[in-house]
Amino acid sequence: MQTPTKLATFALGLVVVFGGAAGLGVAVGPLGPPEADSPHGDGHGADDDAADGHPAGHGAADGSEADAADPSGMMTGLPGGLMVSQQRYTLDLAKPELPARDQAPLRFRILGPGGAPVTDYTESHGKDLHLIAVRRDMTGFQHVHPRLGSDGGWTVPLDVSVPGEYRVFADFTPAGHDEALILGADLSVAGSYDPQPLPAASTTAQVDGYTVTLHGALTPGDESKLTLSVSRGGQPVTDLQPYLEAYGHLVALRDGDLAYLHVHPAGSPGDGATQPGPEVTFYATVPSAGDYRLFLDFRHDGVVRTAEFTATAAEEDR
């Protein structure tokens, strides 16, 4: 990944902005396969091959249609991941439910214009497609990398041992397409659903003996600088390892509708300027006030770990 220029990265999709949900009913495409003529944190192993099956970050832009701001400074497009169909592409789950168990196989296709499965993609951070799965209460976060069959079908094992309602997001760029798309679909896991309350906002997270500290705040409609610092045993970690071409990846989900925001770190390994820790810096813009759940993936000692935060975006007096 090239070192992003702070402002230009928004236009290139390296800092992803998703807009407010106004106008959703007008812009949503067909929910099934498109017609032919339609307009349609725990520690994990470090293997980042396809279908690695553990939480992991990547670097794809979200599929938001509009990036223009209105005169008030708020973003006016659609949030990423709220639609199952967008720009004539559809996320088609083979089954909308899975049994409650670890390593349950999820099968799906990306249907393109005309309804045929897409088989040709443009890689983003070394992968053709990245899949995020999370329960509706924003527990059980997973970021995995499915395997693509010759027929255009994708398969990946998910840990859905805890029953409930899940949301899955496919983040991909069809070959020849100018921008990445993020499509979302609901997935039911049989059993008693016991939703957990959203954890209180905090600037620190613990995972496997590591402490990750969040510096910066989210401001609706404005670019926010977020710096996450990794330490272990009270000592800063200065030898983070590249994972999917970056030292860290951050996904944010908005509480309530799970609108999806993917942001990228400033800089990349090997660019001559970006240090391998302890700090990883991101630039992001959130569209609205409210609570967001942040998921940071980082790799150290050959293991990918995910630190989770709740952050609140508060309106400023204007």
Summarize the structure.
The protein is mostly beta strands. Helices cover 3% and strands 36% of the residues. The protein has two helices and 20 strands.
What does this entry look like structurally?
3% of the residues lie in helices and 36% in strands. The longest helix has 5 residues, at 8-12. The chain is mainly beta and 318 residues long. β19 and β20 form a beta hairpin. The chain has helices spanning 8-12, 24-27; strands spanning 44-45, 85-86, 89-93, 97-98, 104-111, 129-135, 142-144, 147-148, 153-158, 164-172, 181-189, 204-207, 210-215, 223-232, 235-236, 249-254, 260-263, 279-285, 290-300, 303-313. It is globular and about 50 Å long. The strands form four sheets. The protein has a five-stranded antiparallel beta sheet, with no helix packed on it. Strands 2-3-5-9-8 form a five-stranded antiparallel beta sheet, with no helix packed on it. Strands 4-11-10-6-7 form a five-stranded mixed beta sheet, with no helix packed on it. It folds into two domains: 21-189, Immunoglobulin-like (Sandwich); 204-313, Immunoglobulin-like (Sandwich).
Keywords:
318 residues, mainly beta, Immunoglobulin-like, 2 domains, 5-stranded antiparallel beta sheet, 2 helices, globular, disordered N terminus
Low-confidence stretches: 1-76
Helix content: under 10%
Distance between the termini: 36 Å
CATH fold category name of the largest domain? Immunoglobulin-like
Beta-strand percent range: 35-45%
Number of domains: 2
Average pLDDT over all residues: 80
Tally of contiguous helical segments: 2
Number of extended strands: 20
- Rg estimate, integer Å: 18 Å
Order of helices and strands: HHEEEEEEEEEEEEEEEEEEEE
Largest sheet: 5 strands, antiparallel
Look at the structure and name the CATH superfamily of the largest domain: Immunoglobulins
Structural class: mainly beta
CATH architecture of the largest domain: Sandwich
Q: Largest sheet, order of strands side by side?
A: 1-20-19-16-17
Shape: globular
Top CATH class of the largest domain: Mainly Beta
